[in-house]
Design brief:
49% of the residues lie in helices and 4% in strands. The protein is mainly α. The protein is globular, with a radius of gyration of 13 Å.
């Protein structure tokens, strides 16, 4: 699959300021990490998995302070957005329709 769904309101989702506060990061960092997580999860054989996601690479890619991505990921895990190494609501927002998705 070469694409994933991105929903209107994702950038302005009300949970991001809470995550940002918990992680001591800006909302912009949180949204950037979320987009990187979604893209990574979409590319996995087990779609939705974030196992192997490298926060250090994200920090370097976006020029974030060391540990910024890891702090955001930890806050997302604390909130249940990431659970058991997966984007918790993956199936809800990224349904797999075999007619549409060819891997």
């Amino acid at each position: 699959m070469n694409w994933l769904r991105w929903y209107h309101g994702t950038v302005s989702d009300v949970k991001w300021p809470r995550i940002a506060r918990c992680a001591n990061q800006s909302v912009g960092v949180v949204v950037a990490v979320w987009s990187a997580l979604l893209e990574f999860a979409s590319e996995q054989e087990d779609r939705g998995s974030v196992s192997g996601f490298c926060c250090e690479d994200v920090d370097v890619l976006f020029g974030f302070d060391d540990g910024a991505c890891a702090a955001v990921l930890a806050a997302m895990e604390d909130e249940g957005i990431i659970a058991d190494g997966r984007v918790e609501a993956w199936q809800k927002y990224q349904p797999c329709n075999k007619r549409l998705y060819k891997k």
